[in-house]
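Journal club side-thread
Mid-discussion, someone asked how the predicted structure for our own chain would compare to the paper's figures. Pasting it here so we can look after the session.
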Amino acid sequence: MLALKYLLIVAGVLMLTAAFSITLHDLYKLFDERRKLGAVERPNFGDDWPEPLPGAESTALQSASPIRWRPAASLALAACLPLLLADGIVVIPAGMGGVRVSQMRGTLPGTLYSGAHFVTPLVDSVQLFDLRDKLFTAGIVEGVSTKKMSFEPQPLDVQSKEGLSIGLAITVRYRLDPRRLDYIESHLPQPVDSEIVPAVVASAWRDLAPTYTVREIFSSKREEVRSDAATVINKKLGADGILVEEVMLRNIQLPPQYAQGLQDLLLKEQQDDQMGVQTDIQEKQVRIAELQAEADAAQKVKEAEGEAKSKVVEAKGEADAMQYTLPLKQKQIEQSKLEAEARKEATIENADAEAQAKIIDSKAEVQRRDLLATSEANRIRVTAAADAERMTSEAKLLNQSPLLINKIIAERLSDKIQMVMVPSDGKFFFANDVFHGVDNNAALKQQMQQMDGDDAPAPAAAPAPAAGSQQ
């Protein structure tokens, strides 16, 4: 909204500038043409130069460019519209409040808060007020130089009940009531921060201080005085639309002589209080010693009574224990007997169990041996039956092929003898000649050995090959 206001102002100013520019431009052209017309010199022909015709100068002026009054006036009137609209837009900053003041009706009721508002142009104006908290300080400001402050703290001297002058350093935090800004504008002197607040605050403190003594204001009733002053100030300023948030009593300046006397008095009171405290401490120490003595005596009595009672209780306990000890010992003896009998019975039962276990083991061993003998007899019978069947089958084979005896004998004689099965007739067997040669050689070697008289036994001659024989 603020940008719109500035835009309207710029538009109005530009339109007014254009209107004035048009008028000035036309006036300049008219002046220039008149100057040029008046600057034309006549030729120097003496008295023979004819006089200008009447009306010639007016004719030249009429032929000059006219001034455009109508367009300039139109632009100027058009510029008034955005300027009026811009004048009717009021933007109130944050933390501020406004009141409309009419030229015809005076201050209008209602408060304009932060933001953009529309008012009647050229009739209404807006008076701004700061709605944020403010501080009014009177007296000495601690830690701040007066040269750095934007205001000079006003001195605040009040009279106490005794008639002594006391300097107060106070601070009042307040703010304006936004709902009563119209009342503040129309009824209170402006600015309120310097015209109303200082006078009301000083009046409240000066009316309240004479009801209290210096000592009460300084120490004993300081908070009460501050609270009463805050109530009075809040009541007076609240009626004028000023809200008081807090009243602070920061410092009190006493008269020098009274301050010195008060310091001496406080010192004596402090000493008196210290003596009273020491006396109380000593009295309490004596009382503590008496109480400790009484407590020690009572403790000893209690200890003696406790020891006597404990001995009585111990004697009664021993008597009661003896009454219960004999039956208990009898029960222990009976329990021991029962345990011995139980152990004896357990030993007998264990011996019987071991004997039965040995009997069972011997029976199991006999059964095992019987089973082994039975299995061995079965094995022998099966082996004999198998041998009988084998011998029967071998006898059948030998009856059918008697030459197998030679093969069996040769195999049992040596494992280096190789046997070959040939047909019984041997007509078409290609190795017959080889075997005959081998036989002849063997016979020749046998004869040579006999001739040499070798004592070694001659090997058995190989049987002559026959049909179905083995060589």
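Post-session note: Residues 41-50, 52-61, 143-151, 454-471 have pLDDT under 50 and may be disordered.
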